Amino acid sequence: MSAGGADRYERSARFWLRAYPPRWRRLHGDEALAVLLDLAPASDDAGAPHGIGAREAWGLVRAGWALRRREHPPLGRWLLYRLFDARLPARYWWWVADDIHGVLYPWRVTMTGLGTALAIFYGWPVLAQLLFSVEVTRPDLWLILLWCGTFLGGGLLFRRSHVARAWRKHVLDGNIPVDVPADPPRAAGA
Predict the structure, then answer these.
(1) Where are the transmembrane segments (predicted)?
(2) Can you give the residue ranges of every domain in the chain?
(3) What would the pLDDT profile of 130-184 be if each residue is shown by its tens digit?
């Protein structure tokens, strides 16, 4: 394979390996890339560089998403985590750490709060009318826009604090074991 073909194949392999979770890629990404490069097909007669084929790409995407699905909490626990910031069982702690480290985590927190507020604002009047036959007025459009602006502005301004708070709550408060010796050294005389 020509140098240009190898570069293109490697870029293509790195792209398709992004289907795997980031933590897995940090631990096993170089090894998987080396295997893919070893199994790379030879370039054709014209010397045109090849990328990963459709079948191989589909296999990588399928395997990566299957791994993500296995690590993902079930729907009920995920909803509790997302809506009420509940802690997840030990099996999902690494998934939580990956979620918090994700680029879109502050956006997800903001959109969850905004979606909940809108569901309450628009859902309560409908529910009250259906259950109690009481006519409850819906909030005005300007109030809804004010709430949306407040949530979006707060999410933008406080995105770092959202991440720091979530990291403290879900990771540092004893969930994920950190590389700490079992018996930490003590001061002399203690």
Answers:
(1) 114-134, 140-158
(2) 3-71, 75-172
(3) 888 777 777 788 888 888 888 888 877 888 888 888 888 887 775 565 554 444 4
3 state SS of 140: coil
> Is the Cα torsion angle 73, 74, 79, 81 positive or negative in sign?
negative
Contact 25, 67 (CB under 8 A): no
Residue type, position 139, single letter: P
Instruction: Quote the CA–CA distance of 54 and 60 in Å, as a whole number.
Output: 10
The reply to whether the predicted model has a pTM over 0.70 is no
**CA 61 → CA 15, 19, 131, 145, distances in Å?**
10, 5, 47, 39
Is the backbone of residue 2 left (phi > 0), alpha (psi -120 to 50) or beta? beta
